[in-house]
## 1
Amino acid sequence: MLTSTSTQLKSALEDWPKSIDDLGAASAMSYILPSQHIVNSPNVNINPANSTDTGNNLPHIARPQTEIQTAFEMIDMGILSHSLVIKFIFSPDGIRLTQRQYIKSMLADFGLSECRHVATPMVEKMHLLPDMGMPSADSILYQTMVGKLIFLIHTRPDIAYAVSIVSRFMAAPQENHAQAVKHIYRISKKQST
């Protein structure tokens, strides 16, 4: 049964691009550029800041959507509001992404709900090395904490460098590495309130 299912999945994945091309919808697909908050395609250039209509009733979206719905099983679920714990907020100024609930649960998971907020993602002039002669930290806890921070980078690029530094020590973390991770969590505290 598993072989049959995997064969069907492989066949569907191979047929999907061909089916979309047959519909002519591939050229009408839209891409969101996060840095510009603009939806682009060869036929359309919409800036949400200049448009009051962020719904599904735009004609250039409705036609390909209808064609795809007739060829495939598809349900229109309306405007995207949440995906993978990222909340999408549409406004005339653009599209805002937030992970406020994720940050709150993340802080609660590690007992940092009541921690003080800090202004910078890393302690100034702190140099982390693989072996600093400190006691070992719990590697599973460390890896979990860093993994959650990696996911948080989607909406918090300001912590990306600090997370890249602490992720280097996931194999054998020490106490000072764990303190650096907790410091990054503390900068996230402000956004959770």
Note: The chain has two domains: 2-81+90-96, 100-192.
## 2
Amino acid sequence: MVILIFLNQFIDRVTFFENLEKEMFLPLIFYRLCYPSAMRYARMWYVGNIVRKFFDVDISSQRISEFLEEIGDESIQREFFKEYIREITPSEGVDVSTLKATVEELKKYGVSRILCHP
């Protein structure tokens, strides 16, 4: 639920979403979370779901394809993850207290040798 609240606030705040159809974004996210299947079934899900009462959009295969092409731009993805990481990372830093234990476990199984030496 936190990610959906973040996404909604993020979409409203950032400028690179200005030319995108924002109303299409959240229904497709809800679809993927509730019914993780091919996008071609999204319209059928949408018609029979309460989501259609909150988002009045054309969720046809053609519109989904056009929307995915729009948001597939690399600059949008980079900006999204930069903002998302900033949002989820605590201001005081990242807790690495378990990192040593993880590295020790990897060493025990010889994985560090595989990962560090191609």
Note: Confidence is low (pLDDT under 50) at residues 114-118.
## 3
Amino acid sequence: MIIYSGKTDMAYFRQGVALQYLGRHADALAAFASGLAQDPKSLQLLVGMVEAAMKSPMRDSLEPTYQQLQKMKLDKSPFVVVSVVGQELLTAGHHGASVVVLEAALKIGTCSLKLRGSVFSALSSAYWSLGNTEKSTGYMQQDLDVAKTLGRVMLFSFISVQKGIEES
């Protein structure tokens, strides 16, 4: 990984562009994601990642999803963009790059338990495919914890609604 004494986001950006020109699209996306994990507010890295993804062999599968993100105004959310790209890398069989990208998404962070759970699940699958059962199981457990928490929230919401109906 290239690190300059100046702004690290520029180093990640340049690394991503260089890897893209070498035809190493998955590695380029991992470089952009790593930079966003360090500086989630970098519009240059986010735009670079989207452009690299759209120039990659995954364009046909990513483009409809990205268009949906634009309609929902989520195309500027670093967590959402990085996690979508990471899951697409996983689907395309780029397991090593998907791990880098998905772990970058977790470093960027989100308030949404459901989205975080989705990343945990994808990381579990990626590590399983790489033969790392220990990390796979760890992420699977985190996904299960999120699912339990979401289940409790859903149950509490249902009980609150039910109670409101009974009182009226």
Note: Residues 1-6, 154-162 have pLDDT under 50 and may be disordered.
## 4
Amino acid sequence: MLPARGPPARTCGARSPRRWTAPPSGRPPQDKAWWLAIPLAAILGQCFAWFYLVRSYRLLNRANYQIVGALEERLPASPFWRAEWWALGDGNDRSRYWPLSDIEQWIPILFALAYISGFLTAVLA
């Protein structure tokens, strides 16, 4: 058979190729950007819960250590309550001991600030 001459025949449902055009900017339109407030509220709620969870565990541990200290006062030796805390400067010398719960409580705050700044950057930029 001889090949057909002229424009190629269209097949069923075929379309001519269109050129892709980029959106005018890489960010969502202003009316759509405020929808980001919904996941921001959820994430900030998680940061709030995380902060209070760490705080709750810190208070619980403090109470547990007071109980251990009260029990050690009745024993002939007090390796934790007196000796360990004495070696750490009674927890007041930051060069020897920095309570982990103090550091842990800053982490959810820093995450919340990062999320808020990212939200504001997306909305206001």
Note: Residues 30-124 form one domain.
